[in-house]
Amino acid sequence: MSRVITAVLGAPGSGKSTVARPLATLLPAHAFLDWDALMDPAAALAGRPIQQSPDTWPAYRDLIRAVVGVVTPLPAVLLGVCTPGELRGWPVGAWVLLDCTDRERRRRLSSDARHADIEAAITDGRQYRTLGLPAIDTTSRTPSEVAADLAQFVHQAEHSERQGEHLSPPDQTMTHTHGALTNAGNIRSCRVYERCRGSLTSGKICGAVVTAGPGDSGRAPGIRLMSLEIRQEAPTPGALGEHGRISIAFVVDRILEVTVADGGLGGMSLTETPVADPYLKDYDAIERAGPARWAERFDVSNWGMIGACRDGARVGGAVIAFRTADLRMLGGRDDVAVLWDIRVAPGQRGAGVGSALFRAAEGWAGARGCGWLKIETQNVNTAACRFYQKIGCTLGAIDRFAYPELPGEVQLLWWKALQAASESESS
User: Fold this and answer.
1) pLDDT tens string 244-299
2) Which residue of 23, 106, 401, 406 is most buried, as measured by CB atoms within 10 A?
């Protein structure tokens, strides 16, 4: 059986049940299986409740495994409370943890759970954090927001699986005991992770993972440094192929709606508007649009490429187009470079990787005498638009008719003045 399952682990109160419906909307081609979904009919067969009868758990696990065998090889998402050690040998391609603070978990469970069950859930949540799995924080976030992050993770995990990169969890064996967890190895204290952005220094960015102790009341003394290496690379076909293995897909759950006043003479305005039916957008899915084909379609001999690696793993990259005669975006100008592509692995988004790549692209273009960096995006990519605005770009053009095949999308062209422009103006 192929590894087609993404396993979503979460202690009670983490938001697994509430995220299932919006996640199914974002991933309509997937099968979804909630570990607890068959509890009631299984209890009817067993003649006693499954959760309170540990002797039934192995049989129930076999039942879920049989259901998994029926729904696969469809891509599947399994939401449950079993750890990697408990599902060893299952066709799981990737693991992700849904988590929240202890205070938030207690608040969510307080209305319909016994005190002992709440404390057991908090204990489970603390132990799950020691597994070292990729985590999505659900604290103070809506189910739709969490589902959007989770859909991106699933898409990236399946993309990596197709490339032969199985996302294995750390090798830890954990077993349930009376609703809590025990670990065959050493149990670390509870840790709630917060990403801390660093500053770009000598081509590297330092991101600290700051941890909080039990009860979320204070900071634990442990800080683990994770270096982000930014390096220039030659845009060879092989390197571009590696670049393309990082997913550029994102969830469209809001757009910048364009309003035209007085036929355009009164100006245009952009209003951020929620999307009724969110969907996944993947530029690489467009025929011949992926990075692996760029060297065939364009003369990339003058192009630049920036790679980002964290702890030895590629987590992002940027490609800059420059002095390419047949590239309309450049307009035949030698003082303009185009940020042709910038992408960050879904699990690393929001951690400073994109900013580091953008600054490196600015430096690359400025070193070649460019006064401007030009970027194309669309009104469906609001996160990118906010990013470019925040990093100092100016919206230079709005083209509502740029994509005849995508009439609902609007082209937005951003410009960033580079240091080279300021120096030439002052001289």
Assistant:
1) 989 898 889 999 999 999 999 999 999 999 998 888 899 888 877 789 999 999 99
2) 23
pLDDT category of residue 337 using cuts at 50, 70 and 90: very high
Cβ burial, residue 143 (10 Å; 0-12/13-18/19+) = middle
Domain 229-426, CATH number (from 3.40.710.10, 3.30.2350.10, 3.40.630.30, 3.40.50.1580): 3.40.630.30
Task: Give the mean pLDDT of 360-381.
Answer: 96
Q: What is the location of CATH 3.40.50.300 in the chain?
A: 5-183
Q: Please report the pLDDT score of residue 161 as a whole number.
A: 65
Residue intervals in the chain for CATH 3.40.630.30: 229-426
The fold of the 5-183 domain, in CATH, is Rossmann fold (3.40.50)
Mean pLDDT: which of 72-81, 277-286, 313-322 is highest? 313-322
